[in-house]
Amino acid sequence: MNSFSFVPHLAQLKKLSWPLLLNIVALACFGFAALYSAGGMSMDPWAGRQMLRFVVGLGLMTVVAITDMRVWQQLAYPFYLASLVMLVLVDAFGIIGMGAQRWLKLGPIQVQPSELMKIAIVMALARYFAPLSTTEVWQIRRLIIPIALILAPALLTAAQPDLGGALMLMAVGGVLLMVIGVRWWKFGVVLAGVAAALPIAWFSLHDYQKKRLTTFLDPEADPLGAGYHITQSKIALGSGGIMGKGLGQGSQSYLDFLPEKHTDFIFTMVGEEMGLIGGLLVLGLYTLLSLQCCMIGMRSHNHYGRLVAVGIGATCFLYLFINTGMVMGILPVVGEPLPLLSYGGTAMLTMLIALGMVQNVKVYQDLR
Fold first, then answer.
1. Helix (H, G, I), strand (E, B) or coil at 177
2. Number of domains forming the structure of the chain
3. Is 214 domain-assigned?
4. How far apart are the first and last CA of the chain?
5. Phi, psi (5° rounding) for residue 132?
6. pLDDT means per 10 residues in the chain (368 residues)?
7. Between the CA of residue 320 and those of 123, 220, 238, 331, 336, what are the distances in Å?
8. What is the domain range of residue 207?
9. Which positions ≥6 away from 47 have C-beta within 8 Å?
10. Which are the contacts of 316, defined by CB distance < 8 A and separation ≥ 6?
11. Domain assignment present for 277
12. Which stretches of 222-265 are DSSP H helices?
């Protein structure tokens, strides 16, 4: 590998994907508006802080984008290992919130390692597969390490307990394996094994996790208990109509009928106050974001960069699918945010760093 510098190259700024950047800003503005409304038409306590995080995140995204891609390729395994260590430390020293131990306090800030791992796993798998030929990828022995890279953080995340985060990590890893060209019959074998293990997995779930799954099948069975979240979410989405009720006018959200309106259920707020049109715009922008990432990856001449960009694009789409499916009642409530819109420092900064990686692939697309 040729020598490279760890110092960012400012001259590379002109190679950034400006359409991707505009899309990022547009999605963030939807989030700012929803958080402003959720705070009672006030910048406090959420919108102002989220804007500050976004500005910091844009700075980090730019630094990541203009740093030589080979730097990030070399740091892929160390970053993965650091994220894995933080997941282990969460079990011992993590901060408990909303019934789960998912956050680690690092000085003045709180970090959710499972969010960092969503980038780390893409980078680590991309580095592992980048030098392999198609024939080597097809060899079963070559899949032992990638499967371990996926399962280790997934099991640690599930133990927090964060079932949604664990499933997200496995889904991201699975998409990367599909992109790299792993034979479909191998996925069939894995799925068959998962299906066979479901009865055992059911008995290992916490009571509230079992309740979420049974509530998903029949939310009306306990509308004031386990089914409360999804029932209120559906009411809010339906009451928004075509044009929405306007910022600060959503009865479900403004009168606090809707739980977690600034985090997991922020899309519901968009639907109630900005209507079907606002919801479709968010869905369209997020889908476009995923496609932009994948297109940047497909145009790259660097195999590592191609895998990173497509993996992050798939991650964006999974976030959208899981979060919106959850608030619409077509998926169980698993507590996954919608980054760039949902309030949360780690999710916001992690997504912007990930998109910085995509910009990096665009900047260095001719690197071989």
1. helix
2. 1
3. yes
4. 10
5. -85, 145
6. 69 91 96 92 92 95 94 96 92 68 76 91 94 82 90 88 84 85 66 65 63 64 68 88 89 75 90 94 96 96 94 93 90 85 90 96 90
7. 21, 25, 19, 12, 9
8. 13-363
9. 32, 35, 36, 39
10. 286, 289, 290, 293, 351
11. yes
12. 228-239, 251-254
- In this prediction the pTM is 0.89
Q: How far apart are CA 311 and CA 177, in angstroms?
A: 10
Asked whether residue 63 is domain-assigned, the answer is yes
Q: How far apart are CA 118 and CA 121, in angstroms?
A: 6
Structure tokens at 327: 């608030």
What is the SS3 assignment for 71-111?
A: HHHHHHHHHHHHHHHHHHHHHHHCEEECCEEEEEEECCEEE
- Distance of alpha carbon 122 from alpha carbon 315, whole angstroms: 9
One-letter amino acid at 363 equals V
Q: Report if residue 59 sits inside a domain.
A: yes
Q: Which two tokens stand for residue 154?
A: 């997934």
Helices marked H in 130-265 = 134-137, 144-158, 163-180, 184-204, 207-217, 228-239, 251-254
**What are the strands of the beta sheet with 95-97, ordered from one edge?**
95-97, 100-106, 109-111
Q: Print burial letters for 211-242: b (CB count within 10 Å at least 16), e (below 16).
A: bbeebbeebeeeeeebbbbbbbbbbbbebbee
Longest dimension (CA), the chain: 63
Q: What is the pLDDT of residue 224?
A: 62
